[in-house]
Amino acid sequence: MNPDVVIGTGEAVVFWVLGPIALAGALGMVLSRNAVHSALWLVNTMLALGVFYVVQEAPFLGAVQIIVYTGAIMILFLFVLMLVGRDSSDSVVETLRGQRVAAIVLGLGFAGLVGAGIARATQGIPVAGLAAVQGAETSNIEAIAEVLFTRYLLAFEVTSALLITAAVGAMVLAHIEREPGTRPTQKELSRARFLTDRPQTLPGPGVFARGNSVAAPALLPDGRLAEDSFATGIEPQEVEQMPRPTGRAELGTPDAALGTLDPAPSDVPGGRDR
Amino acid sequence: MILAAAADQPTLADFGTDVWWIVLIKVVGVFALLVLLTLFAIVFERKVVARMQQRIGPNRVGPRGYLQSLADGLKLAFKEDIMPALADKPVYFLAPVLATVPAFLAFSVIPLGPVVSIFGQQTPLQLTDAPIGVLVVLACSAMGIYGIVLGGWASGSTYPLLGSLRSAAQMISYEIAMGLSIVAVFLYAGSMSTSEIVAAQADGNPVSFFGLEFTGPGWFAVLLPVSFVIYVIAVVGETNRAPFDLPEAESELVGGFHTEYSSLKFALFFLAEYINMVTVSALAATLFLGGWRAPWPISVWDGANSGWWPLLWFFLKVVAALFVFIWLRGTLPRLRYDQFMRFGWKVLVPTALVWILAVATMRTVAREADLSTGQVALFVGVPIALLVIAVLLVASRASNRATRLAAREAAAGSNHPTEPEVLPPPGPRRGPGGPSRAEGGFPIPPMDLAVPPSPRLRRRDAVAPEGAVVGTGRRSTTTIEEDVDD
């Protein structure tokens, strides 16, 4: 290893603190039964990775990792998972016999293979350090921009074309073509309504009434039923009204009814005896 | 871009060299500042909205009611903490924390002032800065979405879930527009660090207009007006404020994502919302309104941009931006969800993209033709802006033509529906006989619904026995006694 490149204390501390956290996130993602919990563990790992990038003097990469992967892509994942419902945890019943053991063995084998391969491939590679690669003067952001827009320009553009194609494809699949003019716009409806006798909305069921059932029609100020508010397809039902006391002089004090079986002050809708 | 920035203008090299107790002071200072600004913003909002609605507003607690939000906050802390039975407990607990922590973090890169002396130490009035300063704010706002989304999901209830779904879609959409609006600022400032963006707005743009020499403003709000407008609109959506407060639309979703929350957890959501407001206002001041630098008439005074004075200018700008938030809330009705998304994706994002293209092109042209920024703005920007405004005026007039004609006819006494078949025929639709068709393609309930008789409904045939019908709470006691007696 190049003796010029020294890992600082702070970097080591960050690594040993965040490394286990990232690993725990990865394990939690695999092991948790609830899909949303899995996604959250993955968010945890991605955040830790983002901090790793920043610590290794690639702040732009770290910020993009957090903004794009954690902030946008995982939110979209969550968006879909949330629609699945909160109680749909994984079933523990194995449908394929022995698949769990096979998956664990194969996964460990694959991890060992990749790890060993990378370890062998990177063994003995001289470490140059970031400053030597991008030049001590330029910042990391400028170095990334330069490489991205010169050497990897074609790859960059092709990737964006691929993404655009995917987005357009998804839109085409999800799009419903509707003949223009088949459905009146809000503007047309509104204008037409204002040219009729009744521009305002119809009273909803239950306005000024005691029940909140859709069958309880609204009442007009004089106590009649408002026909405009009859609900679609339901027989309107009249609701028992609150007594409407008009004053103590007519009704007597309600305290007089306390402790008696007398249903004072008034049982009759509308307050007084008709 | 950075020409003759003053000596106390901090550069990136000034950060990361503070003594530990200076850092501590700054951290505590930013925290206290945000909490105080939240308390202030709530009272300020209630007072301003009250004024706009011809009311008095809070006037009981403290001098002229200014301690109202403090009292409310204390009350919230002492309220009962309710955990819904269906809640996903760890996530339900985590969500308010996830909403609040990034909100506090984002403010750490906001420059509050120049290099000042704190107990003999020269230090910039800013917690920290990085080459990616503004991206830190974007990352924090991206993380803040999780708090809202998870809060709604973990409540185990319908309205919160709807609110969180709305907020997920809304905040991602408007974050794209917000990010795109900032790109033009990066292009002009040549940096993503907040302190350098402030420095880039320090000097005006000298322009010579047919021999008339003057210095144009250096604010990016003037140089990049389209970016500024898009930013302002996008952050209103990003912070879930009216008229874009769909995730917590009271009239549709009760309280939206925080319906099930109470006590301190609710207070944390509330805190996060107002801190986000303060942060985006501060970012608007930093990116577009010259940061802590004094506005023009004051900047004539030499000492305006040194020492602790810039703190005052900065907070004046922040409060002005907060006022705009409140003004919008007091003025505009809430958008419908589809209108809102259409506006974000079909208007804001394409406009931002075209604007970036135009800005980048003009930057290249200016470099090739050796023009200064001020000249470009004056000789290219202003004519194009006038042209665009004229086209928009004509287009809007053309699209409103039918309405104008109808209004003129109506004013002249005509009262015939212009399109009689647009509205469904009046009459049987609402009648008790039942309608005959699905109208406008909207779902209609099954038509053979029979409502079971409710004890509270009047029985048409049988007369209710005396006292059996419960009318008021008081007489219900009587009824129960009666039942016992029977």
UniProtKB/TrEMBL annotation, chain A:
Any one Gene Ontology cellular component term annotated for this protein: plasma membrane
The protein's enzyme class: translocase
EC number: 7.1.1.-
Coiled coil region boundaries: none
Keywords: Cell membrane, Membrane, NAD, Quinone, Transmembrane, Transmembrane helix
Short name of any one Pfam family annotated for the protein: Oxidored_q3
Topology with respect to the bilayer: Multi-pass membrane protein
Chain segments annotated as transmembrane: 12-31, 38-55, 61-81, 101-119, 152-174
The name this protein goes by in its record: NADH-quinone oxidoreductase subunit J
Automatic annotation (TrEMBL), chain B:
Entry EC number(s): 7.1.1.-
Function: NDH-1 shuttles electrons from NADH, via FMN and iron-sulfur (Fe-S) centers, to quinones in the respiratory chain. The immediate electron acceptor for the enzyme in this species is believed to be ubiquinone. Couples the redox reaction to proton translocation (for every two electrons transferred, four hydrogen ions are translocated across the cytoplasmic membrane), and thus conserves the redox energy in a proton gradient. This subunit may bind ubiquinone.
PANTHER family per UniProt: NADH DEHYDROGENASE SUBUNIT 1, NADH-UBIQUINONE OXIDOREDUCTASE CHAIN 1
Region of interest (Disordered), ranges: 408-486
Record's protein name: NADH-quinone oxidoreductase subunit H
Subcellular location: Cell membrane; Membrane
Record bears the keyword Membrane: yes
NCBIfam families, per the entry: PRK06076.1-2, PRK06076.1-4
Classification lineage: Bacteria, Bacillati, Actinomycetota, Actinomycetes, Geodermatophilales
Principal location listed in the UniProt entry: membrane
Top-rank lineage group of the source organism: Bacteria
Pfam families (alphabetical): NADHdh
Keyword Membrane: yes
Designated gene of the protein: nuoH
Protein keywords: Cell membrane, Membrane, NAD, Quinone, Translocase, Transmembrane, Transmembrane helix, Ubiquinone
